[in-house]
Amino acid sequence: MEQILSGIRDFADRAHGEQTRRYSADRYIVHPVRVMEICRQHTNDLAILAAAILHDVLEDTEVKKDEMDNFLRDIMETNQAQRTLKFVVELTDIYVKKNFPEWNRRKRKSKEADRLSTISPEAQTIKYADIIDNSGEIASQDPDFAWLYLEEATVLLDKMTKGNRQLRALAIETVKAEKEMLQ
Fold this sequence. Notes:
- This protein is mainly α.
- It is built from ten helices and no strands.
């Protein structure tokens, strides 16, 4: 499993290229790896861990679904590759400004929250870990934007109820704690 995850990490790192985290000089890959490690505390499901590493690739890079599918089928069993790709697709935002330029952020995020409420429990579990990792970094580095992000995360967590219960509870507590620290 570690060899597969290492290959997936390298693929995601290459896909993200020179991207860095918004608030640091860290290569972007540090975030998906942290999301995967948060998930790993609650599951050893290879498809979930792999999708956690890949969760931003389709949304934030030039990699297309077919390319990711071919890569995954080369390094994983077919059923694991299919599950991984399914979770990544579920986590890829649809209601983005590029696709809906006439909609404001509030409307796009509301539609996205409704969509995320219907995705698989496994993908919701990854999203909980994503929220946990982003919340602390955003709150400490950009307090003005953090209010908006944390409110959006609260809405997501209210609507996404099918994933790992412990991780969801941790995400809710993390968002709440970050809000309190901002006050």
